[in-house]
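REQUEST ID: PR-0412
SUBMITTED BY: lab tech R.K.
PRIORITY: routine
TASK: structure prediction, single protein chain
INPUT:
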Amino acid sequence: MDPLSITANIITVLHVANSIISVCYEVRSAIKQSPWSLTRTIDELRDLRNVLESLETAYNALDRAKSVDETRVRSFRLLCDSEASPLARCLQELSMLERKITKNGRGTPKLFSKAHAITQVIGWQLKENDARLSLERIERCKNTIILALTADET
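STATUS: complete
OUTPUT:
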């Protein structure tokens, strides 16, 4: 996988995470008290976004380095390269979560009207268990990436 592909994969996952965060903010702005899963989703995805931005920064620094450290490059490929990689699993989980909360499942959600946001809020209560399971899987992917970043720093 070439350097541009690794960066593109990271940016793709970042885009989906940001898209979900945007939807969550729209829903939160339409209600007075946020359900647990909405607050937790926002917090978890912000954490994931920070980790992904750190991953992108670390990879870009490696890509710009004068000498190529093949071991580190291989590590980044393992994180990003295959269908079973942590980054690919993270994208799958985020895509499933996005479909659950936007109901249109087409990637980039449209900005809601107030009425649509209220409809989302009513449906949101039914998604507590789904949200919990999705967030647990996303957290596992995030923790794997954090572990790889930590190992890369040593």
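NOTES: The two ends are 24 Å apart (CA to CA).
REVIEWED BY: pending
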